[in-house]
Known about the structure:
Blueprint: E1 2-6, E2 13-14, E3 18-19, E4 35-39, H1 45-49, E5 59-63, H2 65-69, E6 82-85, E7 94-98, H3 107-116, E8 118-119
Antiparallel strand pairs: 1-4, 1-5, 2-3, 4-7, 5-8, 6-7
Amino acid sequence: MVYRRIPPTIHWFEPPDRVTSANFKLNRGRGDLGLSVYRRSVVTAQQVLEKPDAIPGSRVTQAKVGDIRTLMNGQRQPLQLDVIIVDDENNPGHAEIRGPEPGRLAPAASKVLQELFELL
């Protein structure tokens, strides 16, 4: 199981509690290789919210790693997503959801990830 932190602003949330697909798109301007997530086996949802870069009022979503790996697009083709461990001593439990090509996710990925992740 992995967590993804969602900021409390309109771009990321549609009131009252619908997470938008914008939360599951890469920020190419930052050079992201994947979508940041946290492994539940290492950190709690509360710890994710207490990280120094967390915006007050953020929420946490969760999904099973196995479900992420089996996601398909609208044509029932595998998206070939994986969860890669990328933690370090300053960010234990950190991982990334990546497609077969680091730094790129299929357009369908953001929508199916939005549907998969559950708000806690």
